[in-house]
Amino acid sequence: MLRIFLVMLFGLLIHGKNDSLLWNENYKLSWKDFKAHPRLEVDAVALTVSGISFSYSLSQNDNEDYRYQTFVEAHFYPEKSWYKAEVSNNHILKHEQLHFDLTELYARKLRKRIAETTFTKQIRSELNQLNDDINEELKITQDKYDFETNHSINIEVQKEWEDYITKELKKLRAFRLISYE
């Protein structure tokens, strides 16, 4: 099966916020969220396109000390994500949700690393490197998830991944994005 992940890097945001769904622990994806036309020429049953958006702002005081603010969000892109209705089911939807959940997990990991890092005067390159590193780790984990679950076919391993992702999200709960809507 085919799997694509859109990684959003600083300064390369392709989509506006209205073109994506922000990860929310109280919202689970439904098939209506997958709006792209399915690629019939591939064996994949569904495709989730998700990614981490990352940006920051910097200011420097008279002592040349930097103050910074970072923005890290996990997004799902409906206009890029698709499914084949005739062969999709709730089990596959749950598998796709976990791809999005993994994206949120790595967004939290990035927020944690930023919070725990003592930056130098090379803060820009250090922030960008943290982002690059986390996105590479996310890609490796997404591929591992698909490989180990055989794209959701291995139900026992799928359940192990569900438990693992749930546990890891809880461990990093302090680094979730807090919304004041």
Automatic annotation (TrEMBL):
Superkingdom of origin organism: Bacteria
Source species of the chain: Gilvirhabdus luticola
Pfam name, any one: DUF922
Protein name: DUF922 domain-containing protein
